[in-house]
Amino acid sequence: MAMAKFLGRDVRPLVKDPRVQFRILVAESLLMGCAGELAFEDEHLRGELERLFALLGEAPVLPVSGAEKKSAIGRMTSSLRSAVKTADPETLKRLQAHVKATLHDEISVANPRFSFAEEI
Amino acid sequence: MRLDPDMSNAPTEHEDLRARVEAHLRGAATSATVVSSVVPLAGGACQDNFRVEAKGIEPGTLVLRSDALSALPGSIDRSREFAVIGAAVRAGVKTPPAHYPARGLVRDGAHAYFLEWASGDAIGRKVTKSPELAGARRKLPEELATELAKIHRITAASAPELATAEVLGPAPQDPVASALAFQRQRIDSLRSPRLGIELTHRWLTDHAPTVAETVLLHGDFRTGNFLVTESGLSAILDWEFARWGSRYEDLAWISMRDWRFGVLGLPVGGFSARAPFYEAYEKRSGHVVDEKLVHWYEVLSNLAWAVGSVAQAERYIYGGEEDLELLAIGRRASEMEWEALRLIERGRI
Question: Which residues of A fall within a CB distance of 8 Å from B337?
Answer without folding.
Answer: 99, 103
